[in-house]
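Subject: design request, 143 residues
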């Protein structure tokens, strides 16, 4: 009971501190570089990478050093990798679904997703996030 009371009393203070921290965090740019391409030798492997700032490569000095760049680098020794990156800083599962509905993509052999942080920070419930993730998955079973 004491912890609940403390949590209730501290709630407004923690909320204001959280807002202040979010305002003070610098926004890093997405790295320059190709968002699609073809590289390697061997059997064709088509990869789609979807997501938020982590997928977009924020924090990496170049697209080559990002998640997608390193994925392509590692796989291109064994496969001809045809890849496409659809990612944006701040993307949520819902915004990604909307974007995908406006775009002609596919077919792909593999879809890598990096989504969830912005869903959580926007207050989306776990139940709704799972529903949206399921919609995303179903979107790609048709491709």
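Subject: RE: design request

Done. Sequence follows.
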């Amino acid at each position: 009971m004491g912890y609940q009371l403390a949590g209730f009393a501290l709630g407004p203070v923690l909320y204001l501190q959280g807002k202040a921290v979010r305002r003070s965090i610098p926004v890093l740019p997405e790295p320059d570089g190709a968002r699609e391409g073809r590289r390697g030798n061997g059997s064709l492997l088509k990869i789609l990478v979807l997501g938020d700032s982590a997928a977009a490569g924020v924090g990496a000095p170049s697209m080559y050093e990002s998640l997608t760049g390193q994925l392509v680098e590692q796989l291109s020794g064994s496969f001809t990798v045809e890849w496409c990156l659809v990612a944006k800083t701040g993307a949520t599962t819902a915004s990604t679904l909307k974007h995908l509905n406006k775009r002609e993509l596919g077919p792909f052999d593999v879809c890598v997703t990096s989504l969830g942080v912005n869903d959580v920070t926007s207050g989306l419930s776990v139940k709704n996030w799972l529903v949206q993730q399921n919609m995303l998955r179903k979107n790609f079973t048709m491709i």
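The CA atoms of residues 48 and 111 lie 5 Å apart.
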